[in-house]
Amino acid sequence: MIDSAKQPAIIATDTLYQRMGGEEGIASFVDSVVEAHVMNPVIRPRFLPYLDSPDKVALIKKHFCEFLGVGCGGPETYSGRDMISVHKGMNISEAEYMAAIDDILSVLEQRQANELTKQEILYMAYSVKNQILHV
Ligand code: HEM
């Protein structure tokens, strides 16, 4: 017979997907990041042309959510294009890439994400750097 009062506390380690708030949390995170990109003078010109096409923005956001969901270990399936095909021909610079990373980190900080969460999300963005910069 196990006396539960004497059992050591179980340390619950939430997955990245749980820490990001699951499907809903990720959708809200993506909304904030896209909003930050539109406000960020370094990359704003890249995103402004899309604002006249709400359907296109909704589709890009859906793909962002799926991309992040998969990266966070969620049940999503990514239905967008691969990173090279998406960013090919944009000739994205180091400064633009850093601006996007800054936006991501700012939103994580606004949401008081913990250190592990910030590290994991930033690494996810960093891991595709070579498929985005100057492709
Ligand atoms: C930091 C790492 C980045 C990741 C993980 C990323 C990821 C993505 C994803 C998942 C999509 C949607 C793909 C689709 O709809 O098929 C997308 C679209 C897009 N990204 Fe990125 N991106 C990154 C950085 C950047 C940067 C630095 C810029 C430019 C400053 C940029 C500009 C765009 C644009 C303009 C689109 C829309 C393309 C279109 O559908 O016409 N991205 N990105």
From TrEMBL:
Keyword Zinc (UniProt): no
Pfam (any one): Bac_globin
Key words, A-Z: Heme, Iron, Metal-binding, Transport
Named cofactor requirement(s): heme
SUPFAM superfamilies referenced in this protein's UniProt entry, alphabetically: Globin-like
The keyword Cell membrane belongs to this UniProt entry's keyword annotation: no
Name of the protein in question: Globin
Species annotation: Flavihumibacter stibioxidans
